[in-house]
Amino acid sequence: MTGTAMLDITGLTHAFGPGTGHPVLDDITLTVDEGELVSIVGPSGCGKSTLLRCVAGLIRPTGGRVVLRGEPVDAVPDGLAVVFQDYSRSLFPWLSVRDNVALPLRRTQPGRAQRRAAALDALSTVGLTGTAQKYPWQLSGGMQQRVAIARALACDPVLLLMDEPFGSVDAQTREDLEDLILAVRQDRQMTILMVTHDIDESVYVGDRVIVLTPGPGRVRADLPVDLPAPRDQIITKELPAFVRLRTEVSRLVRGQEGGPGSPADRGGAEYWGRDRNRSRAARASQE
Amino acid sequence: MSRASGRLAARWAVIAAAVVLWQVWARQQGSSFFPPPSAIAARMYQQWFSGPASHLFLTPDAVGNVLPSLGRIAAGLAIAVVVGGVAGVAIGRSVALSGYLDPLLQFSRALPAVTLVPVFIALFRLGTEMEVATIAFGTVWPILLNTIDGARSVDPVQMETARAFRLPGWQRLTKLIIPATMPRFFAGLRLSVSLALVLMVFAELAGSSNGLGYEMNNAQSSFDMTWVWATIVLLALLGNLFNLLELAVEHRMLGWHRGARGRVP
To answer: Is pLDDT of A267 > 70?
Structure first.
């Protein structure tokens, strides 16, 4: 954690549709340091997935810039890997688990044997030794998402983007996968940007939590998470600091002012009361 | 397992019972229009399968008529698979192409292929070329339209995954678009295989100097109803054989598809 900027987002604005269209992101400015794990949390429809796609170079934003390691992003950059939410659709069902993981390596590694070795290595990192010959659909949801994580890790990315990666697995699996990400990060010193709608998760895994306002998304708050490492699903979540942060994030996501002594809060009061339906939807999305 | 095999046995028993009933009924009637299955089977054996072992027991008649028909079906289907498959993927993946071509394709598909036989006769004269053209033109539509649909509806999440992992264009085609299109391609091929047999018989009835359609014409004009029936039964058997072959290939190629669908309905 050298503290140099891995990712620099300046004035990022995006709207879908022609002209000014339907605004999704409004003037997002954000810096992610090397080795940091930053959670982005916000109610449904706040544009957090769009933000991630702009960083990945999958969407060209209508305004602002994304700079990765000093290079402006205008196509999918080198050294970046993505884990999508919908693992059952992002893995290719006609390829075995091993071939799914090895596929992105074809561009960089000409040798088939090396690619396979790298794939098996990545699979063992996520605890999936012995499933290489299976097809993704023969595995449980949690295991499929592990395959997707292995596919991302096999590329040896400097920046890992995760779009609500654990949104469709059960609670126990989710906790296991959160710990897997923390362990992998510890080992590989990767920078991770993770979008989630789960407030506990955002605090538990993050070094920082960025809270976005409902659409169009703006940065409502940028909270440092000062929880001791290593984190533990039971011990960490009992800490007063965790509970305080979770409450804080929860308030911010629901559009209320932060509690006493809360960090910068932009536009919360203006939002509150303007659209109660949205904040109900935000509560529902936390289920 | 035993229930499944029991059901299978029951199905075959129904077929066997139908044949026996037909035999009894035809024997009683003694009509020359409806010969009993035993006579048809004997005629089939004598006509096509009583040749020397060195010719795989095929008679000269089988070599002269059955094999050319099979060859025309294979050639026609091969053209349809290549044209329909390649054009289907290209049109399905190109918004501009499919926008321009869609009305034309929908119109052409509705055109019964057999109506073009006179045109093909004029173009190619009587014979193999005309027959292959008829089969190819008739069977290309189900393959083409299904492939277009399959290529068009490749899962956007999978396409985005390919972009995020920067798969080069060629790999995007061979590792994503083509495999994702395969289930629809095979759905089209299944239809085309059945169509091919119909078109083959029709084209050969219209004008040919050999083949099963030609043989049927011969049998009919010599008032040999047993021979006509033998040809009909042979065509039915060939139709079933083609279906089985197609299913076997499909089974092999689309194992993942059945598996994935079984898991996620």
So the answer is: no
- CA separation for the pair A255, A220 (Å, rounded): 9
What is the average per-residue pLDDT within A237-262?
A: 79
Given a contact cutoff of 8 angstroms between Cβ atoms, the answer to whether A84 and B161 are in contact is yes
Query: Is the pLDDT score of A279 beyond 70?
Result: no
Which of B158, B160, B167 is facing A58, going by the closest CB pair?
B160
CA distances, A10 to each of A60, A71, A74, A142, B199 (Å): 14, 13, 14, 35, 65
Query: Which of A82, A88, A135 has its CB closest to that of B164?
Result: A82
Judged by CB atoms closer than 8 Å, whether chains meet at A93 and B256 is answered as yes
Strand order in the sheet with A63-68: A22-33, A5-16, A63-68, A71-72
User: In chain A, which residues have their Cβ closer than 8 Å to the Cβ of B263?
Assistant: 137-138
Q: Across the strands, what pairs with A16?
A: A22
CB contact under 8 A, B158 and A92: yes
How far out from the chain centre does Cα A169 lie?
15
Give the residue carrying structure tokens 């940028």: A222
CB-based contact B166:B234 (threshold 8 Å): no
CB contact under 8 A, A93 and B176: no
The Cβ of residue B187 has, within 10 Å, a number of other Cβ atoms equal to: 17
Secondary structure of residue A33 in the 3-state scheme: strand
pLDDT top residue among A40 and B259: A40
Residues shown for chain B: 265
Is A103–B175 a contact, with Cβ atoms under 8 angstroms apart?
Answer: yes
Q: pLDDT of A163-191, one tens digit each?
A: 999 888 888 899 999 999 999 988 888 99
How far A90 CA lies from chain B's nearest CA (Å)? 5
* CA nearest to A55, candidates A6, A1, A107: A6
Q: Which residues of A touch B168 (CB under 8 A)?
A: 106-107
Residue A1 has pLDDT above 90, yes or no: no
* Prediction pTM value: 0.84
* Beta-carbon separation of B175 and A137 below 8 A: no
Chain-chain contact of B166 with A76 (C-beta, under 8 angstroms): yes
Task: Please give, rounded to a whole number of angstroms, the shortest distance from the CA of B79 to a CA of chain A.
Answer: 26
| pLDDT confidence of residue B1 | 52
The closest alpha carbon to B138, from B112, B160, B172, belongs to B112
**What would the mean pLDDT of B166-183 be, rounded to a whole number?**
94
Do the beta carbons of residue B160 and residue B169 sit within 8 Å? Answer: no
In angstroms, the separation between the Cα of residue A88 and the nearest Cα of chain B is 9
Each residue's pLDDT tens digit, B83-141 = 999 999 999 999 899 889 989 998 888 888 888 888 888 888 788 889 999 999 999 99
Is the per-residue pLDDT at B159 higher than 50?
A: yes
The answer to whether A88 contacts B264, with C-beta atoms less than 8 Å apart, is: yes
Q: Taking CA atoms, what residue in A is nearest to B158?
A: A90
Cβ A5 vs Cβ A14: under 8 Å: no
DSSP 8-class letter at A217: B
Tell me what the pLDDT averaged over chain B comes to. 91
